[in-house]
Amino acid sequence: MLLKVTYRLLAFSSLPFLITACDSVSEVPSTPFETVAVTGFTAKYYFEDDGTEPGVGTDGNDSSIVPVLKHTETVTRPAIDYSYADEFGIDSYNLYTQWEGNITMHSDANISANFNVSWSDVSFYLDDILVSKWSNSNKVIPLTLNEGNHSVRIEYHNHWHTTGFNASFTDYTQTDVSEDISSIVTETTQISYISAYEVANTTSIYNEVEITLPQGNRSHLLFLGSYRAVNWVINNPYNVELQGIVFNSYAPGTTVTNAGNALLLHATDLAAYGATATDINADIFSMTGKEYDYILEEYSIGNFAIPAL
């Protein structure tokens, strides 16, 4: 059973977008992911001299604290993850980042703006309108967007010895582990389960993990779980058949890119980080009629290659 959230209107229809809130769940297909495209962001990193007291700092309204620009670059998505370090010459406690970019809607559709946030103050602007401003918590903002380009600006003031921020704009099909996907599984399909608490920031400060598929004649089905949001990037150098990817995370906003035409499902109750092997196998068997062939569980995960079995 595929689940889709339906929404009720909470904003004026004269705006180029609608802010919405979850109202009910119905048994209808969700919007396919190709309705939204994110084409990159300009990231500006500032030093903000607001002290090093955990969880305490400016939200940008203190005129006596003037941010000093240290670095500018183009990034794939609004995300940053480093700890106990002075990335770009900025201590984690004093990092203020501003991301500006565009999301392109290929049709009118419902999407979610997802934010995985640590101890910080965050402001989210869409089409130059402040949509939400909040502190120290994850957030999912359902949106109804018209076809065309929409400007995005995100302001992030960190107040912790680590940075931990990820934003994504998604419309993945949501389902649960009762969904039967056995029709895409063959006798030679290799089922792999990969799980982690978070991305190893020694690998990427942009919260990305690259998964390389192995050479061989087997097709592949991936189950991906995490506690924090992860941006999983598929590397398929041998052009092997990737049947599908089922993923879940405790924090909102996990993404999967470079998956080609593979089935992508967000299974909201899939056993993620910390689950027992018994529970993991039960969920996979429920969806596929088979158990996993390969499993990898790490606290912090970096780029890796799935072995050919």
Topology:
Blueprint: E1 4-9, E2 17-26, E3 36-47, E4 68-75, E5 79-80, E6 86-87, E7 90-91, E8 95-105, E9 109-117, E10 120-126, E11 129-135, E12 139-145, E13 148-158, E14 165-170, E15 173-175, E16 190-199, E17 208-212, E18 220-226, E19 231-235, E20 242-249, E21 255-257, E22 263-267, H1 277-288, E23 294-301, E24 304-305
Features:
4% helix, mainly beta, six-stranded antiparallel sheet, 309 residues
Explain what this protein looks like in three dimensions.
The chain is mainly beta. 4% of the residues lie in helices and 50% in strands. The chain has one helix at residues 277-288, and strands at 4-9, 17-26, 36-47, 68-75, 79-80, 86-87, 90-91, 95-105, 109-117, 120-126, 129-135, 139-145, 148-158, 165-170, 173-175, 190-199, 208-212, 220-226, 231-235, 242-249, 255-257, 263-267, 294-301, 304-305. It has a 6-stranded antiparallel β-sheet with strand order 1-2-12-9-14-5, with no helix packed on it. The protein has a 6-stranded antiparallel β-sheet with strand order 4-3-8-13-10-11, with no helix packed on it. Strands 15-22-20-18-16-23 form a 6-stranded parallel β-sheet, with no helix packed on it. A hairpin with a 2-residue loop joins strand 10 and strand 11. The longest helix is centred in the last third of the chain and has 12 residues, at 277-288. It is globular, with a radius of gyration of 20 Å. The model is unreliable at 1-15 and 19-33 (pLDDT under 50).
